[in-house]
Structures are given as structure tokens and as C-alpha cells.
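Apologies for my clumsy wording, but can you show me some protein sequence, whichever is easiest, together with the matching C-alpha cells, please?
=====
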Amino acid sequence: MQPSTPPALLLRERGVQITAQRLAVLRVVSALPHATADEIAEAVRTEIGAVSRQAVYDTLRLLVEKGLVRRIQPAGSPARFEDRVGDNHHHLICRTCGRTVDVACGLGAAPCLTVDDDRGFEIDEAEVIYWGRCPACRTATQASAEDPPPSRPPGV
């Protein structure tokens, strides 16, 4: 979602009825990029009060259909949602803590973003997820490897 575009206007432009719940979901997705549906539901409840998990799931599905929210589903992870739509960006995900960040489209030959044989498909999007360890987890791993083992009391 563009910071200068009010959520109500975005909904109206896409022909979506404006409700407090839909506005809250859009605001939360903008504030918490890459959040899961359950995390979004919890934040929406904090903002507007009682709302069912199913209502949040239904709202997210509608917002994805209308192109206002993007759904990504990394392997072994629940679906995550972001409001950065309309560009071809990818994601870095930490294998240790799950931190997810946006990165620009890949460069160079690998990973290949153009298939050798499209088998007749008209390809309009490539979804790439880079996996690794974030700087904080790398630092924590290095620090724990450098810590001396705990000393043992005499006689043990």
C-alpha cells in the first residue's frame, strides 16, 4: 500500500466495500509486512476488538484477489502477507528465526528467472525465495561457538 494512499481509497478503487475490518486488515498488513494470518488477526483484534479468525482469512483472500495484498508461502511456513504488490521483488528468509525481508529481483544467470522451456505457458511472474541466516542469527551462532564451555566443579 502506498503510504500516501488512504486504505479506504484503495478499497474503493478496487470496488471493495469499505468496512472497519477490511480497513484494519489493510493497516495491519502495511504495518507488519510478512505477517501470518494469525498474527494479522491478533493485531486486528487489538485495533478494533472482536473479529473472528475466519473473517480475517476471508478478508485476506479478498484483498489478494483484488491485488491489494500479496500472499507468499515459503516452504514449511504458513502463508505470509504483504502490501508490496505490483513489482517483481523476492524474499530473503532466515532459516533460524524466520525473519523475512524484501529484496530486489535477482541478477545474473543463477537463479534462472527465465525457464529454458516454458511448455506453452505465458509466464507473468517468478517467485524466488532465498534461504540463509540473518545477520543477528549468524552473530549469535558465532558468539556461542566462541564461548568457552562451562567449567565443572572439582570432583565431577
